[in-house]
Amino acid sequence: MEIPRQAEMVELVPNGKHLEGLLPVGVSTTNTQRAEDPQHCAEGKGFLQKSSSKEPHFTDFEGKTSFGMSVFNLSNAIMGSGILGLAYAMANTGIILFLFLLTAVALLSSYSIHLLLKSSGIVGIRAYEQLGYRAFGTPGKLAAALAITLQNIGAMSSYLYIIKSELPLVIQTFLNLEKPTSVWYMDGNYLVILVSVTIILPLALMRQLGYLGYSSGFSLSCMVFFLIAVIYKKFQVPCPLAHNLANATGNLSHMVVLEKAQLQDEPEAAAFCSPSYFTLNSQTAYTIPIMAFAFVCHPEVLPIYTELKDPSKKKMQHISNLSIAVMYVMYFLAALFGYLTFYDGVESELLHTYSKVDPFDVLILCVRVAVLIAVTLTVPIVLFPVRRAIQQMLFQNQEFSWLRHVIIATGLLTCINLLVIFAPNILGIFGIIGATSAPCLIFIFPAIFYFRIMPTEKEPARSIPKILALCFAAVGFLLMTMSLSFIIIDWVSGTSQHGGHH
Ligand SMILES: NC(=O)C[C@H](N)C(=O)O
């Protein structure tokens, strides 16, 4: 297949900017045609060498977002509903195995960002779809755009689904009502629409991701609060809960919280309330998909890089490593303390498990509000790459237009709302999508795109970086096949206990 030439690169519309400012000063369009030629390829065209340093300088877009804001945005992109499933994952792996797997996924995630950044240095423009185009032509571009769209629509639906199911309960608790009433403000469907129109849409209409730094910072502080509450609750909630002893995953509806003292002597209770360090069971298979989902932020990396002030590969890798490291610590602590509170009684959605303890507990109520705020503010960040992907697929050569910008955002939000309102069961489908698109975006695409894009003159096919990249793709492929087969086996045997949010 003929590898597309750089000509397409200059037609790209990064963040709505067209042509002007896209080309390096003094570099003509014809000059940009041979980026893969090593002598033309000082990390690709679209760069100017800074006179004082050797670091290449992107000129496709003049970014203004600071280092800190970019860390907030990327951390916010990583953090989402994934955190709620990690305690469940730990219950099915044990603490040590969980820590090992979490570390592995975090490191691999960072390596994959390294591959993306290196490839985008060669292509000269920071867009995932363009890497696909340079590597495999239009099919590569479409595959990247499709994976981004599916993954991010899946993630956004899961966030809106949390709003739909949690917000009515929060309002009910605020109003001190024993039972839900049929008034509109306790109807999840109306509430999702209301939140979408009043909070998400205005933020999603921002022209640049950089503007969302403040809301991302706020969203992260909500998640920090969530984490503190999870840690605090570990020392407050008695173990075991009555129903946990009866049936760790059984019917939780009429649960009574028993005092710790009542059950302390019983050997069963002691066994239930001791952590396991290494476990393997039928649900262990879900661990990697849950973790992979939790660390997906790859569609957002290049848009954030595009808007970074004084961008360089090293700086962006620092931003990514820092965000991944912070999320890694938060994920581990949330999973650990969530697990140590309920042990094997933890559900696939951590918040549910807390509300079964005491739905009227004020702290739990605040935690739910915090998680609701956090996921609401994550939606605009996750929507951004989808809009970019749609623009890349349908309107690639066109000038930025506010009308199109608004219509795509509104259309996307409307579709996701309809999905969450009318077809919540379809969220199970996202288990499949998550098991396919997440490994593609994290492992397979960055590796194979890198393999094709990096010129053989620079790195021969048998050089260590390229062999490593291929192994990385193979790992992704293996994981994808494994998760898909487990999900299908689960479906066929009808034993699925997996929550709908991944
Ligand atoms: N950004 C995403 O696709 C998912 C995100 N990592 C989450 O945990 O929800």
UniProtKB/TrEMBL annotation:
A Pfam family of this chain: Aa_trans
Signal peptide coordinates: none
Keyword line: Membrane, Transmembrane, Transmembrane helix
Domain of life of the organism encoding this protein: Eukaryota
The UniProt record lists the keyword Transmembrane helix: yes
Listed GO MF terms: L-alanine transmembrane transporter activity; L-asparagine, sodium:proton antiporter activity; L-glutamine, sodium:proton antiporter activity; L-histidine, sodium:proton antiporter activity
Membrane topology of this protein: Multi-pass membrane protein
Any single GO BP term: positive regulation of transcription by RNA polymerase II
Main localization of the protein described in the UniProt heading: membrane
One Gene Ontology cellular component: apical plasma membrane
Location(s), subcellular: Membrane
Domain Amino acid transporter transmembrane: 64-489
Spans through the membrane: 71-89, 95-117, 142-163, 183-204, 211-232, 284-302, 322-342, 362-384, 405-423, 429-451, 467-489
PANTHER family given in the database record: AMINO ACID TRANSPORTER, SODIUM-COUPLED NEUTRAL AMINO ACID TRANSPORTER 3
Protein name: Sodium-coupled neutral amino acid transporter 3
Provenance organism: Cricetulus griseus
Lineage: Eukaryota, Metazoa, Chordata, Craniata, Vertebrata
